[in-house]
Write a structure and sequence with these properties.
InterPro entries: Aldolase_TIM, Cyt_B5-like_heme/steroid-bd, Cyt_B5-like_heme/steroid_sf, FMN-dep_DH, FMN_HAD. Keywords: Oxidoreductase. Its cofactor is FMN. The radius of gyration is 24 Å and the shape is globular. Helix 5 crosses helix 18, helix 8 crosses helix 9 and helix 18 packs across helix 19. By secondary structure, it is of the alpha/beta class. An eight-stranded parallel sheet has the order 10-17-16-15-14-13-12-11. It contains 20 helices and 18 strands. It folds into two domains: about 80 residues, Flavocytochrome B2, Chain A, domain 1 (Roll), CATH 3.10.120; about 325 residues, TIM Barrel (Alpha-Beta Barrel). Bound molecules: flavin mononucleotide. The site of flavin mononucleotide has 25 residues, from helix 6 and helix 18.
């Protein structure tokens, strides 16, 4: 039986040299873990010696604490409950009722509707992008600059199957769910609901963020327990009635944390070994430092309250004088979340290190490629895939729209499409966007914010967002005279309006400005 700890004893451990916290009636020692906490040490210091159940549950799954702390750090049960001092969630501060799903017929409808009921801080976190948001906008608008070249008088009566593979796994569609952090800020079951929707749709690939509210193991478990469409579904891509789950990886400043995370997900002690919990790793490389997201910085967390009345218990775990709200740069959740991410990844050290950590059967994909030269480097480094991405315009404003980078690869290094899988994400809001990406060689197109807006309605909302995109893709294909994904090719597009923006070769030099400040 675990020891009993009194509130008085708990309250003695209220500082960084001895940092105990109670969660759901259990007391944990966070002293060693605190400096590496992904959300920063300040938030743990704020709750040191206290009951942090409400703040914890607002962003984390119940089981996460047990998976990140060793058993020895679970000290015992709290002898009597403590009054709740601060609580609860970014998503509890609703401002309007949600419109019914039946009224929403486009991804943009979801975006607009989410603006009516998501609390301001959650909305700012999701919708924000770096500085003036040029890249965020252009990710989307550049798709509309590329026009279609429909072929008519083609029999398109055959049913269209969107089934394909992603990194060797059968999927129901080339559209996949991009990794996003803190799903619980939108829905209490966050990434679990996304997994359920992906499974119900017959196997949509889901990339789960290292900074998700739920661990990947929780996501895999939730999907396994969810009935899904059943193996008898005639359109089921994945006959095993599962959906592929990939881990998006931020390498921790303390690399041993990353090593043990990967070990726990890909290696088992069982004999014979059970399969890896994840079907691949997407290493994010476009956010070595946090982007300056001004909307997220500007919107303060809801005000702190110390009362326990039902009406006033709405607060984020960040709302204290120690949190970003007291910082003279603002109060961005994104910046707080990024504090554990290593800024020192390199081609020559990080990739071989990661490859050696992963079993050979687990593919490694580099997420955040923004030039043809880096695509070639990734290929030469032995990556199984790349994601052309600029983090949805959240990292570096005025970096190129992702569809332009896809064109750059076609122009400068077309061989990469035969040697590895190329994915693209950023600004995908329509089936026509997906169609254009696929015509230009993408194996799949990822959706980030659109899925989060759908998550406001739980799994049914996520499902509807993905269904809308699938339907629009099928309609576009038929209108263009094709009924199979392998019939898509660049000739179905006119890219002249943007061709002048596409670099012409792999050179890392400017085409004519050769001047250098330093001769070194
Ligand atoms: C709220 C939010 C959180 C995100 N968190 C992560 C993350 O934890 N890891 C990551 O690699 N990318 C993250 N991204 C970037 C997405 O994976 C993806 O690149 C981007 O959302 C695609 O653009 P879109 O939102 O226009 O579809 C996040 C994006 C958003 C909107």
């Amino acid at each position: 039986m675990s020891p009993t700890i009194s509130p008085t004893e708990l309250s003695r451990h209220d500082n960084i040299t001895s940092l105990w916290i109670a969660i759901d009636g259990e007391v944990y020692d966070f002293t060693e873990f605190a400096p590496t906490h992904p959300g920063g040490i300040d938030i743990l210091r704020q709750h040191a010696g206290r009951d942090a159940t409400a703040a914890y549950n607002a962003v984390h799954s119940a089981s996460l604490v047990k998976s990140v702390l060793p058993e020895s750090k679970h000290l015992g049960r709290l002898s009597s409950p403590l009054p709740v001092s601060t609580s609860t969630t970014l998503s509890s501060n609703k401002t309007a009722p949600k419109p019914p799903l039946s009224r929403l017929i486009s991804v943009n409808d979801f975006r607009l509707a989410a603006h009516t009921f998501l609390p301001p801080k959650t909305l700012a976190f999701i919708s924000s992008a770096a500085t003036d948001c040029h890249t965020h906008r252009r990710n989307n608008t550049t798709y509309s600059e590329i026009t279609l070249r429909p072929r008519v008088l083609v029999d398109v009566s055959a049913p269209v199957s969107l089934e394909t593979t992603i990194l060797g796994r059968a999927v129901a569609s080339p559209i996949f769910v991009s990794p996003t952090s803190l799903g619980k800020t939108v829905h209490p079951e966050g990434e679990l609901e996304i997994a359920r929707a992906c499974k119900e749709l017959g196997g949509i690939a889901q990339v789960v963020s290292t900074s998700a509210s739920f661990s990947v193991a929780d996501v895999v478990r939730a999907a396994a327990e969810h009935p899904g469409p059943g193996p008898s579904s005639p359109t089921l891509a994945n006959k095993n009635n599962t959906h592929p789950v990939f881990l998006q990886l931020y390498v921790d400043k303390d690399q041993s944390n990353t090593a043990s995370l990967l070990h726990s997900l890909t290696r088992t002690k069982t004999n014979p070994p059970s399969p890896s919990k994840i079907q691949g790793v997407f290493l994010t490389v476009d956010a070595p430092v946090p982007g300056k997201r001004e909307a997220d910085e500007r919107v303060p967390p809801p005000p702190t309250t110390t009362t326990t009345t039902a009406a006033s218990t709405t607060i984020t775990p960040m709302a204290t004088p120690l949190t970003p709200s007291s910082d003279n740069r603002g109060s961005a959740l994104g910046r707080l979340m990024a504090s554990y991410i290593s800024p020192s990844l390199t081609w020559h050290a990080t990739l071989p290190w990661l490859r050696a950590l992963l079993p050979p059967s687990v593919p490694l994909v580099i997420k955040g490629i923004q030039t043809a030269a880096d695509a070639v480097r990734a290929m030469e480094a032995g990556a199984q895939g790349i994601v052309i991405s600029n983090h949805g315009g959240r990292s570096l404003d005025t970096s190129p729209a992702t569809i332009l980078v896809l064109l750059e690869l076609q122009r400068c290094c077309p061989e990469v499409f035969d040697r590895m899988e190329v994915f693209v994400e950023g600004g995908v809001m329509r089936g026509t966007d997906v169609f254009k990406a696929l015509c230009l060689g993408a194996k799949g197109a990822g959706v980030g914010r659109g899925v989060l807006y759908g998550l406001g309605w739980g799994k049914d909302g996520v499902r509807k967002v993905l269904e809308i995109l699938n339907d629009e893709l099928v309609t576009t294909m038929k209108m263009c005279g094709v009924t199979r994904l392998d019939e898509l090719h660049p000739g179905l597009l006119n890219t002249r309006a943007v061709d002048h923006l596409v670099p012409e070769d792999l050179s890392e030099e400017h085409p004519y400005a050769k001047w250098r400040r330093s001769k070194l």
